[in-house]
């Protein structure tokens, strides 16, 4: 067979075996995402890792992460899946998957290919900037169309489960993309950071910045704001130490959590004590333990009723007016996504966020983060049979021993 004929046969064979977009998603969703730690990401930036190595990793990893979460879109309740805003978000993921798929399997990495890849990642990053807001609009569209029937128990559970996983996946992909772009392009970065990560992240400084910005919003709306008292505690400090509380972390993630919790605390204090001459201060404690760093934001904002505690991390639940409900809505509140998203940021690197509240007095918001970067591993959603059952199985019937999922909480 002549060379031209063999070439035509090879091209025909390739065309015949080319997978459809849906089949490509099925293929890549069978692989598990690679779980990284903060240490691995730091090492990636300091071990003279080349842009070629990063390209080869991301060109395989991003399709896997995209495909895993894309498979879960089909399990959403139809009443939500068919909403225009949700369809729009789905189309963004489909486009991004096709965009990164063109680089998979490329072994001859040229400068032109890297430039094209970096431009594609930047376009993808910008495309997904408003995923949270657009999904929130989709839920509002569903509520407007279906009314109270949109919030039956099983539907609400499916949506909560999906959004937790969608936003966790989005955080993970955003970290990988931004880390790569900061390391290997001219994208502006803080001089203290290695890519997206600060190996010497000053916790107190970020907490003070978060308070100042939350205080500005509070004073803008209420014309007043409580003071904030900061305390750092480290039982392992030596007399010669500079007493600075630091850890390896992504500064923007820490700021996001602290800003959200502080603006909630300021708002609660002002609304509870608005007719008093002096507002009780909000207190922030930063404490380093053996393996964790814990931050506690304490307020005397009246606390939270037990009947509300179970809802605070549910999407679309907010104690403030929703955007459509009040034209003069406070800038300190909104869709009700602040707390659940902040908890996802905390859990992303194996930490946590929770609330302790005394109804009638105040609330303690707690953030716990891993002190050592080798312990701070990603928490990523993986599509498998167990995940699909979460969407398809009916809601379990609660008994008297599980008051959190029964009507017992509502009687208090």
Please sum up the structure shown.
Helices cover 50% and strands 11% of the residues. By secondary structure, the protein is of the alpha+beta class.
Q: DSSP strand (E) fraction?
A: 5-15%
Mean pLDDT: 87
> In total, how many beta strands?
7
Helix count, DSSP H or I runs of 4 or more residues: 14
Query: What is the SS-derived class?
Result: alpha+beta
Description:
The protein is α+β, with helices and mostly antiparallel strands and 412 residues long. The chain folds into two domains: 20-191, Butyryl-CoA Dehydrogenase, subunit A, domain 3; 198-370, Heat Shock Protein 90 (2-Layer Sandwich), CATH 3.30.565.10. The chain is built from 14 helices and seven strands. The protein has helices at 3-17, 21-29, 38-46, 51-73, 78-81, 84-101, 111-127, 131-146, 153-184, 203-222, 251-272, 306-309, 338-348, 385-392, and strands spanning 198-202, 228-233, 246-249, 282-288, 292-299, 352-358, 362-370. The strands form two sheets. The chain has a five-stranded mixed sheet with strand order 2-4-5-7-6, covered by helices on one side. It has a two-stranded antiparallel sheet with strand order 1-3. A hairpin with a 3-residue loop joins strand 6 and strand 7 (362-370). It is globular. The protein starts with a helix and ends in a 20-residue tail after the last helix. The model is unreliable at 1-16, 324-329 and 404-412 (pLDDT under 50).
């Amino acid at each position: 067979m002549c060379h031209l004929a063999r070439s035509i046969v090879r091209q025909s064979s390739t065309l015949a075996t080319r997978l459809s977009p849906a089949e490509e998603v099925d293929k890549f969703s069978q692989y598990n995402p690679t779980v990284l730690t903060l240490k691995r990401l730091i090492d990636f930036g300091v071990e003279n890792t080349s842009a070629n190595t990063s390209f080869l990793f991301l060109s395989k990893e991003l399709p896997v992460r995209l495909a895993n979460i894309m498979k879960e879109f089909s399990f959403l309740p139809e009443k939500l899946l068919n909403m225009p805003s949700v369809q729009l978000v789905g189309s963004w993921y489909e486009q991004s998957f096709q965009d990164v798929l063109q680089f998979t399997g490329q072994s001859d990495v040229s400068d032109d290919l890297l430039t094209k890849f970096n431009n594609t990642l930047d376009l993808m990053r910008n495309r997904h900037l408003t995923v949270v807001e657009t999904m929130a609009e989709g839920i509002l569209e569903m509520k407007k169309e279906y009314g109270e029937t949109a919030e039956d128990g099983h539907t609400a559970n499916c949506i909560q489960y999906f959004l937790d996983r969608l936003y966790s996946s989005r955080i993970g992909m955003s970290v990988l993309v931004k880390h790569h772009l900061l390391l290997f392009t001219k994208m502006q970065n803080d001089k203290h950071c290695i890519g997206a990560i600060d190996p010497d992240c000053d916790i107190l400084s970020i907490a003070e910045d978060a308070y100042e910005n939350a205080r500005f919003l509070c004073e803008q709306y209420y014309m007043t704001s409580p003071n904030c008292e900061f305390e750092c505690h480290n039982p392992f400090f030596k007399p010669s130490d500079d007493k600075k509380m630091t850890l390896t972390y992504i500064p923007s993630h820490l700021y996001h959590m602290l800003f959200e919790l502080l603006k909630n605390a300021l708002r609660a204090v002002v609304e509870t004590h608005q007719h008093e001459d002096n507002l009780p201060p909000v207190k922030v404690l930063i404490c380093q333990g053996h393996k964790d760093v814990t931050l506690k934001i304490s307020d005397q904002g009246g606390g939270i009723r037990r009947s509300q505690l179970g809802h605070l991390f549910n999407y679309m639940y907010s104690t403030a007016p929703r955007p459509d409900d009040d034209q003069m809505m406070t800038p300190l509140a909104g869709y009700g996504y602040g707390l659940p998203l902040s908890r996802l940021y905390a859990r992303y690197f194996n930490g946590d966020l929770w609330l302790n509240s005394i109804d009638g007095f105040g609330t303690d918001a707690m953030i716990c983060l891993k002190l050592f970067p080798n312990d701070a591993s990603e928490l990523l959603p993986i599509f498998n049979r167990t995940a699909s059952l979460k969407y398809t199985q009916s809601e379990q019937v609660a008994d008297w021993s599980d008051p959190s999922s029964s009507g017992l909480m509502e009687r208090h």
